[in-house]
TrEMBL record, chain A:
Segments forming domain ABC transporter: 4-257
InterPro entries: AAA+_ATPase, ABC_Ni/Peptide_Import, ABC_transporter-like_ATP-bd, ABC_transporter-like_CS, Oligopep_ABC_C, P-loop_NTPase
Protein name: Peptide ABC transporter ATP-binding protein
Lineage: superkingdom: Bacteria
Gene3D superfamilies, alphabetized: P-loop containing nucleotide triphosphate hydrolases
One GO BP: peptide transport
Subcellular location: Cell inner membrane
A Pfam family the protein falls into: ABC_tran
Originating species: Zhongshania marina
Molecular function GO labels: ATP binding; ATP hydrolysis activity
PROSITE patterns: ABC_TRANSPORTER_1 (PS00211), ABC_TRANSPORTER_2 (PS50893)
Main location: membrane
One GO CC term on file: plasma membrane
TrEMBL record, chain B:
Signal sequence region: none
Domain ABC transmembrane type-1: 112-324
Annotated protein name in UniProt: Peptide ABC transporter permease
Location (main, coarse): membrane
UniProt similarity note: Belongs to the binding-protein-dependent transport system permease family.
UniProt record, GO biological process: microcin transport; transmembrane transport
Domain of life: Bacteria
Subcellular location as annotated: Cell membrane
Mode of membrane association: Multi-pass membrane protein
Length: 327, 343
């Protein structure tokens, strides 16, 4: 049994005109205990909405889960009551957000903010125990001189340090699953690799699973066991990270990888880019959402939504013509 | 930071001198000072016959004029008489009223309880109403409560306080006779029991307090509401939810405290409200407060009282500003004055 199983999840966005439109449209994926799923896609494709809907952290009432199940260890947490959901949040499933500048409360100290998670989920422990644990966590996430940082406020820390504090906060209760929503996007490149290495190390140590959301293909290839490539609210391709990168089947994945400049890329030669634009949410095509930009588009693509088809035992692709394209 | 506040306290001295010197200079140049007043009074009094007329149409001899000028300190150049005045102030002597001949301090002191009663009630009631109302409006933005309270609050803000005062008197004291017409206490106040006294003060205070308060809700309520809404939509509120806090807990522990910061910082400057008091409302309700005293003193050119009120109110205002800064530094760890460190 997988640790987390998302089945036919849809998320709707309420427009200014009062009409709810499905942005994330019936997507499914599984995460096994201890493994990492990389959720990749361009900005606005619904990665974060998908992730936030797992713990019902969507910005309401603008966004809401309109369909689908979220199973965590077999328990349907998508339809459970708020009390149960609160027990899971922070304890079994923790979240790291994109921007550590704003995700921390600016007027509370590091110790207060990490301590809060412990107070919520381990109220039976003493203050001393919590204090010990906070120090231990700060040490684990590689914050130098943790004793001196306890009383620091977020504005006194650098971006990388703040993200480390966020990670310490997320790891406080040793969760089974960590949702990392673009944890490195707001950081500069050298700090990015430090944070990714830290996350991988902690994951190996604690044996937790991770849902790693990013638009950085190079990063996701380092981190993930499995990859789900999202396009306009649907999963285009899903499979083992190595397979997807070695032999992409979906035309979108192919274009993405082709657009990635390699180390042998000739200087000043033009970069490959995907023509066209993502369809606006107001006029999503009824067929394949990628049809207007696809090189291999056929009549069928405009009329019928492609369903996920198995390429191999684990890998799937949502394309009508994947067999023809391959050959 | 201590250094910063020491500097701020020291800066009170030149600011205070600037304010008082300016007003002192104005009292010297505007026509119709206390001597002219006295002369007209004597002229109108009909006792002028016994005094022999001097040149210039006055009724006093030159020697008498000189004596009067010396008495009021008008015989010296402005700066030196300002220095004399300032020296007296430093010895806690505000001089004597030219109208009542009583010490200024005694006259002001008499009005203190009344003004502080209204000032304090206004201050406390403003915060007691605005903070919960602003919070409720922020939590239930767009609800019926929100729209209706906005309408009421802005109506109060838009109507001048004296219009409200007059309307209240005509309705509740004239037409329905529910509350007394004015005054601070009834004439037979001394005969009441303790409970009766409290009730008497209360019934006299209801209408003027409403007139004072009507306009003061809008700013703080809206400040509270906007500040709460900003914080409710902040990213750290999502973090709080992701930690496992319930909605009400995260509002209380995170959004609430942060949204009180701007309101708390306005508290210091509101201290000067304590002795404010609008002369319009005091006139309408016949309340003998500082506002009315100050107004009459200006009309009657009773400069020692004008300067005396100025001394007290400007000191309160200057101290209130520093208090504001202290409040900011206390509630917001991001603010550090003078150190150069931090944001």
């Amino acid at each position: 049994m997988s640790l987390l199983s998302i089945q036919n999840l849809s998320v709707s966005i309420l427009g200014d005109d009062g009409i709810a439109r499905e942005l994330v449209s019936s997507i499914s994926f599984d995460i096994a205990a201890g493994e990492t799923l990389g959720l990749v896609g361009e900005s606005g494709c619904g990665k974060s909405l998908t992730a936030m809907s797992i713990l019902d952290l969507l910005p309401k009432p603008q966004a809401s889960r309109s369909n689908g199940k979220v199973l965590f260890k077999g328990e349907d947490i998508g339809s459970t009551n708020q009390t149960r959901l609160r027990q899971i949040r922070g304890k079994n499933i923790a979240v790291i957000f994109q921007d550590p500048m704003t995700a921390l409360n600016p007027v509370q100290s590091v110790a207060q903010q990490i301590g809060e998670v412990l107070r919520i989920h381990f109220p039976e422990q003493s203050r001393q125990q919590h204090g010990q644990r906070i120090l231990e966590l700060l040490r684990e996430v590689g914050i130098p001189a943790p004793e001196a940082r306890l009383s620091a406020y977020p504005h006194q820390l650098s971006g990388g340090m703040r993200q480390r504090v966020m990670i310490a906060m997320a790891l406080a209760c040793e969760p089974d699953l960590l949702i990392a929503d673009e944890p490195t996007t707001a950081l500069d490149v050298t700090i990015q690799s430090q944070i990714v290495r830290l996350l991988k190390g902690l994951q190996a140590k604690n044996g937790m699973a991770m849902l790693f959301i990013t638009h950085d293909l190079a990063l996701v290839s380092q981190v993930s066991d499995h990859i789900a490539v999202m396009y306009a609210g649907k999963i285009a391709e899903y499979g083992k990270a190595r397979d997807v990168f070695a032999t992409p089947h979906h035309p979108y994945t192919q274009s993405l990888l082709a657009a990635l400049p390699g180390i042998h890329h000739q200087a000043k030669s033009p970069l490959l880019a995907l023509e066209g634009q993502v369809p606006a949410i107001e006029n999503m095509p009824s067929g394949c959402r990628f049809a207007n930009r696809c090189r291999y588009v056929a009549e069928l693509c405009h009329n019928k939504t492609p369903l996920a088809e198995h390429i191999s035992e684990t890998n799937t692709v949502a394309c009508h013509r994947w067999k023809e394209i391959r050959s | 930071m201590t250094g910063y506040f020491v500097r701020r306290f020291l800066l009170i001295i030149p600011t205070f001198i600037g304010i008082t010197l300016l007003v002192f200079a104005i009292t010297r140049v505007v026509p119709g000072g206390p001597i002219e007043r006295m002369m007209t009074q004597i002229q109108l009094g009909g006792e002028t016959g016994s005094l022999h007329r001097s040149q210039g149409g006055g009724t006093l001899s030159d020697e008498q004029m000189e004596e009067l000028k010396r008495y009021y300190g008008f015989d010296k150049p402005m700066l030196s008489s300002y220095a004399i005045w300032l020296k007296k102030v430093l010895q806690f002597d505000l001089g004597h009223s030219t109208r009542y001949q009583d010490p200024v301090w005694e006259i002001i002191k008499e009005r203190f309880p009344i003004s502080i009663f209204y000032g304090l009630s206004t201050l406390v009631l403003t915060y007691a109403v605005c903070i919960p109302l602003g919070l409720a409006k922020g939590m239930y933005h767009g609800s019926t409560l929100d729209s209706w309270s906005s309408a009421v609050v802005f109506l109060g803000y838009a109507l001048p306080s004296y219009v409200i005062g007059i309307a209240l008197i005509s309705l509740f004291a004239g037409y329905w006779d529910m509350f007394p017409l004015g005054g601070f206490v009834s004439d037979n106040y001394e005969e009441f029991s303790a409970w009766g006294k409290a009730k008497d003060i209360f019934s006299h205070a209801v209408l003027p307090l409403i007139a004072y308060l009507a306009g003061s809700f809008a700013v703080t309520t809206l400040m509270m509401k906007n500040s709460l809404m900003d914080n409710l939509s902040a990213d750290y509120m999502r973090t709080a939810a992701a930690k496992g806090l319930s909605r009400s807990e995260s509002v209380r522990k995170h959004a609430l405290r942060n949204s009180l910061i701007p309101v708390a910082t306005s508290f210091g400057s509101n201290i000067s409200l304590l002795l404010g008091g609008s002369f319009l409302i005091e006139t309408i309700f016949n309340i003998d407060g500082i506002g009315l005293l100050g107004y009459e003193a200006i009309i009657e050119r009773d400069y020692p009282i004008v300067m005396g009120i100025l001394v007290i109110s400007s000191l309160l205002y200057l101290l209130g500003n520093i208090l504001s800064d202290i409040c900011v530094a206390l509630v917001d760890p991001r603010i550090r004055f003078g150190g150069g460190r931090g944001a």
